[in-house]
Amino acid sequence: MNLNIKMYTILCAVLLPLLLSQNADAAAVISIDLGSEWMKIGIVSPGVPMEIVLNKESKRKTPAVVAFRDGVRTFGEDAVTVGVRFPKNTYKFLLDLLGKPFDHPLVKAYKERFPYYDLIASERGTPVFVHDENTKFTPEELVAQLLAKAKEFAEISHGQPISECVITVPGYFNQVERRALKDAAALAGLNVLQLINDYTAIGINYGIFRRKEINETAWYTLFFDMGAVSTKAALVEYKNVKIKERGYVETVPQLQVIGVGFDRTLGGFEMTLRLREHLIKAWKANGGGDVRASPRAMAKLLREAERLKIVLSANTEHYAQIENLMDDKDFKVLVTRAEFEELCTDLWSRVAGVVQRAVAAASGSGGGAKLILAGGAARAPAVHEALRKAVGHEPARSINADEAATMGAVYRAASLATGYKVAPLNVRDAVLLPIQVIFTRSVDGNDKLIKRTLFGPMNPYPQKKVITFNKHTDDFTFNVNYAELDHIPSTELNYIGNLNLSQVILSGVSEALAKHTGENVEHKGIKAHFNMDDSGILNLVNVEFVAEKTVSEDDEDKDSTLSKIGSTISKLFSSDTEANEKVEDKVEDKTKEAEKNETKANETTTDKQNATETESKPKPKIIVLKEPIQNEEQILSLQPLTPEQFKESKNKIKELNVIDKKRVERETALNNLEAFVVDAQLKIDMDEFAECGTAEQIEEIKKLCSEISEWLYDEGYEAETEVYEAKLTLLKDKTNPIFYKHWEHRERPDAVAAIRNMLNSSQEFLKMAKNLTKETNAERDVFTDVEIGVLEKKIDETMSWLTNSIEEQKKLKKNEDIKLTVDSIREKMSNLDREVKYLVNKMKIWRPKKPLKKDADNKTETVIESEKEGEQEQVEDGTEKTEEQEEKPEVSDEPKDTGGDETPQISDDNPEHSEL
After folding, report:
1. SS3 string of 152-205?
2. pLDDT at residue 592 greater than cutoff 80
3. Is pLDDT at 605 greater than 70 in this prediction?
4. In this structure, how many other beta carbons lie within 10 angstroms of the beta carbon of residue 194?
5. β-pairing, 500-507 with 630-635?
6. Which residue stretches of 253-364 are H helix?
7. Half-sphere exposure of 786 (CA within 13 A, CB side)
8. Fewer CB within a 10 Å sphere, N or C end of the chain?
9. Alpha-carbon span 270 to 903, nearest angstrom
10. Quick one: CA dihedral 282, 285, 286, 290, positive or negative?
C-alpha cells in the first residue's frame, strides 16, 4: 500500500506538468488493461491527474470474472466467491476465447482446463457458453459485460459519463482477435480510441518519466512482461526525431518498438495448474476420493494453488490447506519452493527464449539495453534467475509491474482525446504478423502466382501502403494473407489461425481503362490503398485506376473544365497520401522570355523576335487522372458479427443491465425501509423523542413500525420496489413532525447562543462606531448619524424580538407547534450581519481629508482621497464635501448565514485605522 501511495505522489508530480493544458469542459477518458485474470482501469479527467480507478471494494485491480446465480449478475470479487460454489455459472479467462474458432487449439486447451463449462460451436464457428436452456453467451458478450463494468467503476468514481477509452491488447493478437475486442467494446457502449499493445503501453509509462533523458542519441530498454497466460518481451528504442506536424517541423521524443518475442502459453496460470495437479496427487496419496469428479472441489484446489504460488515467491515453504475439500474432509499438505520449481522445470528455459527472440527480431539493434520486469508472474524467483542468465545482468524493477500498462494506456488516451494537450511522445509500434498481397498474372499465356509483401516483420505502424497492379486490363481478384512466418516459432504457428484474411474482387477495370485512352495517355495501373491503423488493424481504404495525360496548352484550354471536374471527383475516392509513390499533378506555367525582354530598352528588335519564336512553343504538361474502381472485400477468416447478431447481443446485454438496475433499486428501497423502521423504533422509545409527540401519535408510529417489521420478515422480501417506497413514505409522513420538533428543540439553544453572541459583538462595534462621527471626531467622520441610528435600531429590534420569542416558546409544550424556530433565528442574524458589514466595509474604504494651500491666490483646496489610486475629488474655496455626498459602498442584499459564531472584525489592513 505504501508503494501505491508513493507511486501516486510521483504521478502527481510528474504527470501534471506533462498535461500542458486542459479544457475544463473536456470529457473524461479511461484506459482498460484487460487481462485474462485481472482488469485495471486508469482515468484522466479535467483537473484530476492520471490515476487508477478503485472498484467498489476500494481495490486497484478487479478479477476479470462475471457470474450468474439466481438471476443475480456479479463481477470481480463477488463473482470469484460465487465461482467457488458454482463454477459452471462463473465465466473467467475469457480473453483466451475471443476471436477464435471452435476448433482452435487454445479453445481445446480451455475446455480441458475447465471441463465443467458447456461449450458448443455457434453459427459463426466460434465457441459459445450454454448457460441454461434459454441463454447462451458468446465470448464477445461476456467480455463486453466486463468492459461495461470497468466503465461503470470509472463513472461512479468520478461522477461523469465515460464514452472513450484505450484498451490494452496482447501484442500477438491477430487481425480477427483485435476486431473481436473492438466489437466487444462497442457492445459495452465504448468508443475505442486505440487498441494498444500491452508492452507498448508499458514502454510509454517508462518513457514519460524519463523524457529528459531522451535526446538525439538512441538508447534502448528491454521490457519483460509475464502475465497470467502469456509472456512477452519487447525491445524499445527511445530517441528524439523530427516530424512534420501542422505544417512545420518539430523535434519530439519517440518510442519505437524494434523487437518482440512472445510465448502465448507461458504464464503464471500454467504454474498454478501444475501446482493444482501436485495438490490433487497429494490428496489421493492421503486416501482422498476422485476430486476431479467434483467441479466445486476442483475450483477450491485451483484457488488454493494460486494462493500457494504467490506465497512461495517470497517463502521457501508453505502449507496448502482447504477446509471441507470433499466428503466433509479437510486437506492440508506442506509444499516447498523446490518442489514448485521442479514442477515447472521446462517453463524456465522458455523464459530465456522469449527474450532471445525479441533481441533477434531487432536485427542487431538494441545494444546495451536494460531489462525491466513487468507482470505479476515475473515475481517468481526462478523466472528472475532465468532472466539474469539470459541477459547477463540483474533485471530491474523500476516500474509498477501491475499498473505500468494501465498508466501508459491512459496517457495515450489523453493524447488522443479532444480537450487535452499532453507533452508529445511519438509512438511507433511494430508489425508481428507480416501481411502480403497475392494475385495471379498472365505470363506467356500461363497464370503465374505473384506475392507482394505489404507489411513485413517489425514494420512500424500506423502506416499507409499502396500496391500497384500495372498488368491487369480486366476485372480481377487478389487475396490478402499473412506472409511468410519463418520468424515465428513453430509452436506458435497453430495459434495464429487461418492465414487467409480476405479476398478483394475488383470490377469495372476495363471500363476505367477504356475511359482514359489515347496517344497522350499513359496508364499507371490499378492502385490499392491500405492502412494499418493505431490499433494494428489492416483496412483497405480504396482502389483506383491512375493514368497520366500529356497535354499542350491548347489542349489544356479545351479540356480544362473537364480535367478539373475529373480531378475533383477522383480526389473524393483517393487516399490522402501514398507510401513510396509520387503523383505529379501540378501544371507548371512559365512566362515567356520575350515578354520579359520587352521591358529592356537596350535589346534589339531582332533579339526580341527570336526570343518570342523560341518561347512561344507550348511545353507538354502532365495531368493525373484517377478513376475509382468498385471493390468487394470478402472475409476468409473468422466472420465478424453481422449487424443482426450485433443487435441481438446488444439487446441481450441491455436486458441484463435493466435487470441489474431494477434489482439495485429494489435492494436500495428495501434497505432504506429496513433501516428507517429500526431507527424509528429506537427513537420513539426514547423520552426526548416521545415528548415531542402526542400519546396518540407515538402509539400510531409504534404500531406502524411493528406491522412493517413483521411484514418484512414474512412476505415482504418478495415485494416490488414501489411497495417499499410507499411504506417508507407513509412512515416518514407519520414520524417527520415529531423528528422535526425534536431537532428544533435540540438545535435552538445553540442558535440562541449564537444570536446573543452576535448581538454582543454588534453592540461593541456600535460603541466604537459612535466615536467615528462628525460630531464626536471631526477628523475621523467615518459614519453619519443616520447610519449609526439604523444599526442601533436593528440591534434593539433584534434583542426585543429574541426576548419575547423565548418567553413565548417557554410557555409551549414540546409537542406543540414551534414558535421560535432555528430558521427565524438565522434570518434575524442575517439581517443584523448585513447592517454591521455595511459599516465595516465603509470604514475600510474611508480616507481622511487633506487640506492644501495655494500660494498664488491664497485659496485653500481640500483634496479628498478616493478609494481608487490616482483619483481625486477637489472642492475649492475651502468648501468641504458633506458625509451625505460620499458614495455609499455597494452592499449585497443576499442574507448570509454566519452560523451564530461570527464576530464582526475591524480590518487593520489600513494603517490609518491602526489605533482603533
Report:
1. HHHHHHHCCCCCEEEEEECCCCCHHHHHHHHHHHHHCCCEEEEEEEHHHHHHHH
2. no
3. no
4. 24
5. antiparallel
6. 268-285, 295-312, 337-343, 345-361
7. 3
8. N
9. 71
10. positive
